[in-house]
Fold these 2 entries.
Entry 1:
Amino acid sequence: MTSGFFTLDELGLNLQASGRGVSGMEALEEKSVLEINDLATL
Amino acid sequence: MRPVWETLYRQTPRPAFCQTLDWLHLYLKHSGTRPTLRAFCVDEQGETTGLTVLVERWFDRRCELSLPVIGNETCLPLGANPWGNWVPVGEHLRSEMTRRHVIDLRGLADPEGMTTFSLHAVGWDVKPHPWSGSAAISLKGTWEQYWSQLSPKLRTLIEQGEQQLTSLGQTNFVRIRPQRSECSAPLYEPELYDQCLKISLNDECQLSQSNSVLNDPNRHQFLRDLFPVAWRQEAADLCLLMVGSQPIAFRFHTLAFGHLQTVWTAVDAEYHDLPLATLLLFRTIKDSFQRHDQELDLGPMTADVARDWNGQFVPLSRFVIGNGGPILAAQPPEVDRLNRTKHGDGRYT
C-alpha cells in the first residue's frame, strides 16, 4: 500500500506492525542533537 | 562520520546520490556564496538515527537556513524516518530563532502531511506552499505490463518516432553504468562529459528556454565535476542515443540502490523533427526493466506528462518558517518538456 510514492512502512505509518507512534515522535524526549559545522568532521 | 552517513543513506527510503557526503562536498565547492555548514545528527539511545544538513547564509542582516540544493537535486534528511528528523532538529533550532532568522525549505515532499506534521510538532505554524512536482516511474512488474499502461497517444508517438528514426540509418541505444572491478574503481573518460555538453549546448529546448532546470548552463561546471565522482562511486548511469558513432541525445542519471534520478538530459536540435527525448526515455525505461532497476525519477515534471508515462506525480512543497517571511523570492524550478517536437512555427508538442 502506498501514499504518494512512499509506502506506509517507509512513512513509519504502519503503526499496527511497528507498534510505534507517528514519526517516532513519542520518543522525542529520548533524542538528542549533535551539531557539526566542519566538513572534515563529517 | 562517513560510516554513520553511509548506514543512514542505506536506511533512507527512496535514496538519491545527492544525499551522499561526496555530493555535499561538490555542492559546497560550487555554492559561490560559501555558506556555513550546519549538520544535525539525531541520536536516539546512543545510536545516530537521522542526519539533516542545512546551510546558513546571511543576506544583509537576515539569516537563511536551507537545504543544500542544485537544480532538482536536494540533499534531503537521511535515516529510516527522514520526516521525523524535523522534530529534534526544529527543537534544536527553535531557541536561536529571532526575527532575523528564516528557515526556507524548498522542494520537500509531504506524503500524508508527514513534513507538515513534524514541523507543527515543533510548534511552528507553517503551511506547505506549492513549489514544483516530480514524477517517479515504478519499474516493478514486466515491461509488457508497463507498455500496455502507457497512454495511447504516447504509444503512437513512440511507434511512429521509432519508424522515423530508422530513416537516419543505423541507430543504437548505449547505456554506460560503470562498475568497480575487483582491484580498481571504474575508469572515467572525460570525453563522455564533453559529448554530453556538446549536445546540451545545441539542445533544442535550450535554444528557446535557457533556464530549463535539467539543462541550465549554470549547472554545467557542477555536472562536469559530478560525472567523475558518480563514476567512482558506481552511481553513474549514462544513456545515449547514437546515429552511427555520433550521440544525438543523452540522459544522465545518478543511481542509488536501484533508484535512478534524472540529473541531466538533452537532445540535438539538428533532429528536431523527431521526438528524440521521448524515444530515448522509452528505450531507457525498457532497458531498466531488463536490468531490474526499481524506480526512475524523471525530475521536474507536470502531472499530465507523468500520467502519460504511467508515473506517480509527486508534488513538492516549500515551507517557510520565520516571522519575517522568505528572504529570497526564489522561483520554482521550471518543468522540463519530454515530448519535445518543435514545429515550424516554434511550438513544441
Entry 2:
Amino acid sequence: MATNPMHQFEVYRIGPEIKLGAIDISFTNSSLFMVISSVAILLIFNFGSRKNSLLPSKIQLLTELSYTFVSKMISDTAGSKAKPYFAFIFSLFMFVLFCNMFGMIPYAFTVTSHIIVTFILASFIFVGVTIIGFIKHGLGYLKLFVPSGVPAVLLPLIVVIEIISYLSRPVSLSVRLFANMMAGHTMMKVFGGFVISLGIVGGWLPLSFSVALTGLEILVAFLQAYVFAILTCIYLNDALNLHH
Amino acid sequence: MPKDPFKTRLEIAKSKISKRNLYKDKEPPSSIGTAFKLSTELVSAVAVGTIIGFILDNTFGTKPWLILIFFFVGVVAGIINVFRSAKNMQE
C-alpha cells in the first residue's frame, strides 16, 4: 500500500472556517506550523539570552553562536552599513531555518515547500530592498538599470534587460527554496513507499537510501535557509552601496 | 603576577577557534548548490520576461509579438544573471 507522495503537501483547515469578504483566512496546518516555528524561536532565544553567564549553558551557546553567525554573514556580504537591518535578516533566517527543520520531523508539515509562502517572503524582501534603495539614493537608484559605458543605441535594450533581471530576483529566490524543499520531501516519501512495497526482502536498499536522504535533507534545510538569508544580504548590499 | 587560569584557557580557546576559521574559509561551497543556484537564475529571468510580454500583449492587443520579443529579452537577462553570479563566485 503505497500512498501518494504529494499527499504530504496538502493544506487543510483546522478549526472553524473564517472568511474575510471573499478571502478564506481560516487557520490551516500551514499556519499552525508557522506559529509553532515562531513560538519555538521566541522561546529558545528568550531563554538563551536571559542569563549571560561567562560559562554559557547549551541554550545560551546556541543563541550566541547563531548571533555571531548571522552578524558575520551580514558584515561579510553587505558591509557595516547593513548593521541596522540585522534584526530583519536574523528573524528571516531563523524563521526559514525553523520551518525547514520542523518539516524534517515525521508527520510535520513543511511550510516552505509551498511556493506561495516563499514567494511572499521573497516579495517582501524585494519591495523592502527597493524602498531602501530609493530612500538612500533617491532617483539615483535608477542608475542600477543603466550600466556605464554602454553606447546610446543599445541603451533601451540594456535597460529592459536589466529591469527583467532585477524583477527576476524574487522569483529565483523563492523558487530555489520551494523547489529544494519540495523535491527533497517528495523523494524521501517515494523511497519510503519503496520500502513498504518491496517488503522485508528487497526493502533494505531503499531504506538505506532513505536514511542517507534524511541526512542530506537536514543539510539542505540548513543550506537553503542560509542561501535565502545571504541572498537577501547581497540584494541589500546592492541597495546600500550603489556601484555599477 | 600569575594570570587568571580561566583567562589563559579562554585565550587558548580563542586562538584555536580563529585557526579553525582560517581553514573553514578556504572550503569551496557545495557544487550542487551552485549548480542549482545558477539554473534558477536562468529560468526565473526567462519566466519573468515571458510574463511581462504576456501582460503587455494583453493590454495592447498585439498578440503574439511582445511575448516573443520579451521571451528572448528574458533569455538574455537570464544569461547575464548567470554570468554575474558566476563572476561573484570566482571572487
